[in-house]
Amino acid sequence: MAERRSRIVVVGAGISGLAFAFALSQRSSRHDVFVLEGSARAGGNLRTTRKNGFLIDHAGDSWVAAKPAATELSRALGLGDRLVETLPQNRRVYVAQRDGSLVALPDGLILGLPTRVRPLLRTPLLSWRGKLRALLEPLLPIGFGRDPKTGDDEALDAWITRRFGREVEEALAGPLLGGLYTGEVSDLSMLATVPQLAALEKRGGVFFAGRKMSPKGGAVRSSPFIGLAGGIGELVDTLTARLGDRVRYGAHVLRISRREGGREGGREGGGYEVGIDGSEPIAADQVVVTGPAHAAATLLRPHSEPLADELASIVYGSSCTVFLAFPRDAIAHPLDATGYIVPASARTSAMSALASTWVTSKWAGRAPSGMVLLRFFFGSAAMDGDDASLIALARAEAKRVLHVEAAPIVDFVSRFVRASPQPRVGHPAKMARIRELLRGHPGLHLLGSAYDGVGISDCVRQANQLAASL
Ligand SMILES: Cc1cc2nc3c(=O)[nH]c(=O)nc-3n(C[C@H](O)[C@H](O)[C@H](O)COP(=O)(O)OP(=O)(O)OC[C@H]3O[C@@H](n4cnc5c(N)ncnc54)[C@H](O)[C@@H]3O)c2cc1C
């Protein structure tokens, strides 16, 4: 007798849903997998637009090189020769000061933490007192300064401060790590964001253990990020091309109901029924819910109130990106970095830019010859305004820091509402509760940036793990 094929329905065609469907289709021919996407396009947060010869990655433009899942996926898709590294001559980051000037971050930082003595001693970003405090790190016992009342997890700022001192937290690591999560380091979970640092503390301190991982001054440094020559959209387009009609667009999932017994739509004895806006429900043996945890909470509430409450309480940040393009000669600055971050102490208002990427200094081939493309990040406080006011804010920032007087030849705005999960202190314990609650609902799965790492490569790794487990 022929083996019955099992049908797996994926909610959402962001990178999590697409990578899962591709991994499953590669691993097993016993499953039929369908991806239901509510909007008219795949990719979710990942999107690339071409405008007047400029290549614009709306949000993420790359993944962390040290997390290989997205690189491996790209290779499996035949995109190996499309993988690109950041331009080697510009692999530095500036920190904006309150007066608009830029100071380079010192060499040898790991996630914003110093691991080399000489660059640390030379940086003007710390006082002598701050430098000496940072140099004490390798001498501090494990758990030094730790509040005995804290549980296993602790806030990122508390950890950085007790190991490296307040100045390193405020001037180096805090702005860098906070920027990565569109959040405040005072709220973020140490264990959920940078568990490798907690592990290094236990192995004799971060300073010397970390330096093995950090670049040596003067040597050619490997690229910290990997992107694609045609922008991040190339990954999405290739995945959707490979999945073909297994991806359905305009299929917004309204509900997922449990089917008890019976035999419907070829599904025997249980499974789920996935209700789609404006069309017939689809029977599924298993359902993989991707996308933001707040959206998953809505779909899973009828199954478990406690599970939905846990999901809904994962905090999300909103942000937007504004792109401005100028002729190269409109900017005197050498633009010899991937961009700059703006620590809280350098922000002049709640609507100040949080960071800027100099896209054409970071990547080759993103603009017509003689042009530069700049990207400015803003937080939720700036997002109440319309596009024109956001462009005005970005132009004011370009003038303040780079002294650009010219009008941009291209502008472009992209908004990401409640799109960036911010794993708070206690996130690992929350995840343990979520996994336990999910155990009561066999065949229901969660994937996405809210759970076990927020980046593109984290999503791909989790998608691969789930596909392997099925
Ligand atoms: C501004 C910004 C910058 C970023 N930069 C980087 C970076 O440089 N590097 C990096 O690694 N990561 C970056 N990230 C994080 C990265 O983009 C995310 O980790 C990743 O895109 C999450 O993918 P996902 O598939 O889990 O979710 P999403 O991208 O949110 O996709 C979910 C999809 O599900 C669909 N959907 C939701 N609900 C339903 C429903 N009920 N029915 C049907 N469809 C539904 C949505 O329409 C969407 O297409 C950035 C994120 C943001 C917001």
Protein model, in words:
Strands 8-7-20-21-22-19-23 form a 7-stranded mixed sheet. Strands 12-2-1-18-24 form a 5-stranded parallel sheet, with helices on one face. Strands 5-11-6 form a 3-stranded antiparallel sheet. It has 470 residues and is of the alpha+beta class. α1 (15-27) packs parallel to α16, α5 (156-164) packs antiparallel against α6 and α12 (305-312) runs antiparallel to α15. It has helices spanning 15-27, 69-76, 117-122, 128-135, 156-164, 166-180, 190-193, 195-202, 206-211, 233-243, 293-300, 305-312, 359-362, 387-402, 427-438, 456-469; strands at residues 6-11, 31-36, 48-51, 54-57, 63-64, 83-85, 93-96, 102-104, 109-110, 113-114, 225-228, 247-248, 253-258, 263-264, 267-268, 272-276, 279-284, 286-289, 316-327, 339-341, 353-358, 371-379, 410-421, 444-446. The radius of gyration is 23 Å and the shape is globular. Helices cover 32% and strands 24% of the residues. It is built from 16 helices and 24 strands. The chain folds into 3 domains: 6-44 and 231-314 and 424-469, FAD/NAD(P)-binding domain, CATH 3.50.50; 62-68 and 78-90 and 316-421, Polyamine Oxidase, Chain A, domain 2 (Alpha-Beta Complex), CATH 3.90.660; 108-211, protoporphyrinogen ix oxidase, domain 3, CATH 1.10.3110.10. Residues 262-267 have low confidence and may be disordered.
